[in-house]
Design a protein that fits this description.
This protein is of the alpha+beta class and about 350 residues long. The protein is built from eleven helices and 16 strands. Helix content is about 30%, strand content about 25%.
């Protein structure tokens, strides 16, 4: 069971790739969660520690780029720049670029003049993600989740009859929507309503976009700006524990203010432009890493895939393959140390260690 989001669509693709049937239930509509913006940036999170989280993001980024290459029609642009936000960032960027986390040539440090030429305005020293992608989510969701059952799953219960399939998916009236040997819950924040004890929190994000001739390439600078087919999308707000999805003029203003800090010339061009936008709820965890694995404390066959924050299109393909492998008892593409970092039971283990 999943929403038709980056996570749900990736899970369906991964299950089918292993030769099993995948059925998606979605009562919200395709891309209703945080995967419904016109474009999305596919780029890794940076971690100068170069330890397991950095390795996870690097492997996931490579896998996402490789899979998305099979859908060239959804790629809007290639490459992105990361501008420094803190004084230590240039040194951190250089360390990451010099590491072996990424393929040779995937990252490069650019001088201010080089970055400025790329962006069409004055810019600081920057880290170039040469393999980063700007994609159209609706094309990916259509390709990976072409068929969706329009129904909301209200509860998931383990079957008790001998010889029956392990799980039943129920609607709000208690009717059985489907039975299954394995269920992957990839329902964003609502995953916590279906599986007890998941440490999930809501982060509201509103993105803004408008038509613009000759938009610059993709850049991140605390906020971000990425090209669309006919303009530019920028943002986004980041408001914890806000679960409302109304469109707010104040948040358009905040996005313009953030844009002016990173790309002031672009912000000037957009100062009087009519803005469209969309607000959605991202899902975070206490350690800012996803939940991808067996549901904690549940009988065998129930899995969770959520908590991706703003990196769903980067992380979901690899982690969906990991969860699908667990569900179908196939080898996982994720090394055991990295699997432990996204295991949904990790918080309970840490609490147990603190109490011992």
């Amino acid at each position: 069971m999943a929403w038709t989001s980056s996570c749900g669509a990736a899970a369906a693709r991964a299950v089918r790739a292993l030769g099993a049937e995948a059925v998606i239930f979605d009562g919200e509509g395709r891309g209703a969660g945080a995967s419904g913006n016109p474009v999305a940036l596919v780029a890794p999170r940076l971690d100068a520690g170069l330890a397991e989280p950095a390795q996870l993001f690097a492997q996931a980024f490579r896998r996402a780029v490789a899979l998305y290459a099979d859908l060239p029609q959804m790629i809007v642009a290639r490459g992105a720049l990361q501008f420094p936000v803190q004084p230590a960032d240039p040194g951190r960027f250089a360390k990451i670029a010099a590491s072996d986390l990424f393929e040779p040539g995937a990252l490069a440090m650019l001088s201010p003049s080089q970055a400025g030429r790329r962006m069409g305005e004055a810019a600081p020293e920057a880290l170039a993600f040469n393999d980063a992608l700007v994609i159209e989510p609706h094309r990916l969701l259509a390709a990976w989740a072409p068929e969706v059952r329009d129904a909301a799953v209200d509860a998931i219960e383990a079957a008790t009859e001998p010889g029956s399939e392990r799980w039943r998916l129920l609607d709000a009236a208690g009717g059985v929507l489907a039975t299954a040997d394995a269920v992957i819950v990839a329902a964003g924040l609502a995953s916590g309503e279906l599986i007890a004890g998941l440490p999930l929190s809501a982060v509201r994000g509103q993105a803004s976009w408008t038509a613009l001739a000759d938009p610059p390439g993709a850049a991140a600078f605390g906020g971000y700006a990425i090209p669309t087919r006919d303009g530019v999308l920028f943002g986004s707000t980041n408001d914890r524990d806000d679960t409302e999805s109304d469109l707010r003029a104040e948040d358009h203003r905040r996005n313009l203010e953030t844009l002016a800090l990173g790309l002031p010339r672009l912000a000037e061009r957009l100062a009087d432009a009519p803005l469209e936008g969309r607000a959605s709820i991202r899902v975070s965890t206490p350690d800012y890493l996803p939940l991808a694995g067996a549901a904690p404390g549940a009988p065998a066959g129930l899995f969770v895939l959520t908590g991706f924050g703003a990196r769903g299109f980067t992380l979901a393909p690899l982690l969906a393959e990991h969860v699908a492998a667990l569900a179908l008892q196939a080898p996982s593409p994720l090394p055991a140390p990295l699997a432990a970092f996204v295991d949904p039971a990790r918080f309970a283990r840490r609490a147990a260690r603190r109490g011992s």
